[in-house]
User: Which sequence fits this backbone?
């Protein structure tokens, strides 16, 4: 990291030969008599040059942070989903006695997602809370529930298929089979438009 930052900081961002380095071009000129010495247009040109130098410094900083970042953007290989995810969710629900008053529990199949706790399996629990439908998200890693919270829009729990779920035993039923619409052949193919002359 030090060699990466050192090479970026040692470069003269001023650009051309004969120009002052970046640190000198950012120095403010003396305010007294500046208009008489430089004139209005020269003053504006000097301000634009300083703004360009500041933007160049910000770009260099962003480049240094990007090339020296230890963060990996690779997606890890997806492990096998936990076979006992229903039991893990049921175990996580046991400390909450309020769930006994709720009903109509359904659980989605686990999906491999990236969340604030890293790469985890996400399973969504849908239930009825006194006439209101609620969705709770469970994040599972290494056969333990590492995070649980109410569903947020980035969890995409509303787009999942749900199977009946027994919150006492952790048994998950079979996913319902979605009937095919007759005559449905998938989304329409995009046709290239003819150019308008």
Assistant:
């Amino acid at each position: 990291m030090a060699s990466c930052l050192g090479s970026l900081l040692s470069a003269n961002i001023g650009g051309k030969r004969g120009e002052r380095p970046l640190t000198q071009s950012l120095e403010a000129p003396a305010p007294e008599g500046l208009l008489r010495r430089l004139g209005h247009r020269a003053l504006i040109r000097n301000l634009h040059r300083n703004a360009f130098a500041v933007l160049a410094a910000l770009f260099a900083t962003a480049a240094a942070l990007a090339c020296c970042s230890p963060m990996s953007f690779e997606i890890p290989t997806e492990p096998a989903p936990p076979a006992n995810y229903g039991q893990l969710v049921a175990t996580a629900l046991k400390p909450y006695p309020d769930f006994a008053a709720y009903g109509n529990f359904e659980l989605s199949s686990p999906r491999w997602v990236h969340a604030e706790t890293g790469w985890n399996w996400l399973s969504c629990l849908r239930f009825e809370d006194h006439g209101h439908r609620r969705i709770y998200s469970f994040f599972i890693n290494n056969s333990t529930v590492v995070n649980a919270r109410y569903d947020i829009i980035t969890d995409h729990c509303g787009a999942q298929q749900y199977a009946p779920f027994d919150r006492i035993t952790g048994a998950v039923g079979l996913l319902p089979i979605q009937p095919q619409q007759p005559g449905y052949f998938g989304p329409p193919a995009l046709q290239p438009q003819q150019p308008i002359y």
Q: What stands out?
A: Residues 40-67 form the longest helix (28 residues). The longest strand covers residues 118-129. Residues 4-15, 22-26 have pLDDT under 50 and may be disordered.
